[in-house]
Amino acid sequence: MYDAAILIGRFQPVHAGHVALLREALARAHHAIAIVGSAYQARSAKNPFTWQERAAMLRDALPAHDAARLTVLPVRDCYDEPVWAQTVRETVARHTAPQASIGLVGHFKDASSDYLHAFPGWPLIRMERQGSIDATTIRDAYFGATPETIAAAIAPLAADIPPATQALLAQFARQPGYLVLQEEWQTLRGYRAAWAGAPYPPVFVTVDAVVRSQNHVLLIRRAHAPGKGLWALPGGFLEPRDTLWQSCLRELAEETACALPEATWRAALQQVTVFDHPDRSQRGRTITHAHYFVLSDDLPQPAVRGGDDAAQATWVPLHDVAALEEVFFEDHFHILRHFTSHSGGTIAPSPSPLRGIPTTECQRLR
C-alpha cells in the first residue's frame, strides 16, 4: 500500500477511463493526488473546462468517503518537459511526507503518454486502457451538436460519461461560451480537412512580435477563431516569399499599425527565440519565431490600432499582464514570461488556490 498514488491528466472532460484510474489509485494508496493540467488557460475547443470545473467532476465521480482521500492540484502548461517533470515532483513533495512511498497510476495510450517515463523514482501502477472512450470523442460529439441536441449527441457515449460530467456538459451548453467554442471547433475541423489529403502532416511556420516600450507590452485581441477575443502577440504565418524578419515587420504593420522605420526595429531587436513544442497550437504542428524588441525609453510610445486579424491593438502595462493569464491565446503568455524573465520586469502568474491548494508553476501539455 502506497502512501500516495498520483494520477496526471487534463480530464477534458472526466470520463469512465479517468474514474477507473482514480479508483485504482485509491485502492493502491492511502491517498490519491490528481494533477489537473492546462490550468489557468483560456477556454478552448481542446480545453473547454476550467481546472476548478474538472476538479469538481473528479470529486463528484467518487463516493464521498473516497472523494475525501483525493487532493486535486492545478498545474500550468509551460511547454518544457524537464521543467514540468521537476515541478510535478516538487509539488507532490509539498503535499506528502518526506519519506512517503509514491506510485504513479497510468496507461500507455499513445505518444502523449510518454510523460509516464519522466518519474523513474515512482513505481508505475500500470493499467490497461479502460474501454475505447476518450475525451476527444466526447468533445467532438459535444461541439458537433447544438444546445438543444446535446443529450441525443452524447447518448451513445453516456455509459462512459459520469453523471457529474453529463450535468456540466448540459449546463455549459446553455452559456454563451459554448457557441464561441463550437465556432472554434468547427474552424479547427476545417483546418484539418484542408490538409487531410497531404502525404505528411504539415508543419506550419509563424512569427510573433514581443514589443516592449516604457514597461508596456504591445498586445492584440484576436478577431477570428481560434482564440477569438483573446489577448495575443502580433504575428502570423510566414508568407512564401518573405523572410522571417520581413514577415514579422509585415504582421506588426498589418495588425497594429505601429509605424516605425525598419532601422528602428533593427536597433530595438534583442533576440529571436524559437518555440516549437509539438502541442503549443491546436491548429497543428506550429513552430514560431518570436522576435523580442525593446524600444528606447527616449522614443515616444508609438500610436497603435487594430487591423487585419486584430480586433484591437493596445499597450498593456507589464504589471497588468499576469492578471490576464486566463484570457491569453495558446502559449503567448508563456512566451512573454520567457522574455521578461531574461530581461527584467518578470511577469509573475497570479495564484488562484482552491481550498488552500497552492498553484504550481507549469505543466507539460498533453
Automatic annotation (TrEMBL):
<dbReference type="InterPro" id="IPR000086">
    <property type="entry name" value="NUDIX_hydrolase_dom"/>
</dbReference>
<dbReference type="InterPro" id="IPR014729">
    <property type="entry name" value="Rossmann-like_a/b/a_fold"/>
</dbReference>
<feature type="domain" description="Nudix hydrolase">
    <location>
        <begin position="199"/>
        <end position="339"/>
    </location>
</feature>
<dbReference type="GO" id="GO:0016787">
    <property type="term" value="F:hydrolase activity"/>
</dbReference>
<keyword id="KW-0548">Nucleotidyltransferase</keyword>
<dbReference type="Pfam" id="PF00293">
    <property type="entry name" value="NUDIX"/>
</dbReference>
<keyword id="KW-0808">Transferase</keyword>
<dbReference type="InterPro" id="IPR015797">
    <property type="entry name" value="NUDIX_hydrolase-like_dom_sf"/>
</dbReference>
<dbReference type="GO" id="GO:0016779">
    <property type="term" value="F:nucleotidyltransferase activity"/>
</dbReference>
<protein>
    <submittedName>
        <fullName>Bifunctional NMN adenylyltransferase/nudix hydrolase</fullName>
    </submittedName>
</protein>
<dbReference type="InterPro" id="IPR004821">
    <property type="entry name" value="Cyt_trans-like"/>
</dbReference>
<feature type="region of interest" description="Disordered">
    <location>
        <begin position="347"/>
        <end position="366"/>
    </location>
</feature>
<keyword id="KW-0378">Hydrolase</keyword>
<dbReference type="Pfam" id="PF01467">
    <property type="entry name" value="CTP_transf_like"/>
</dbReference>
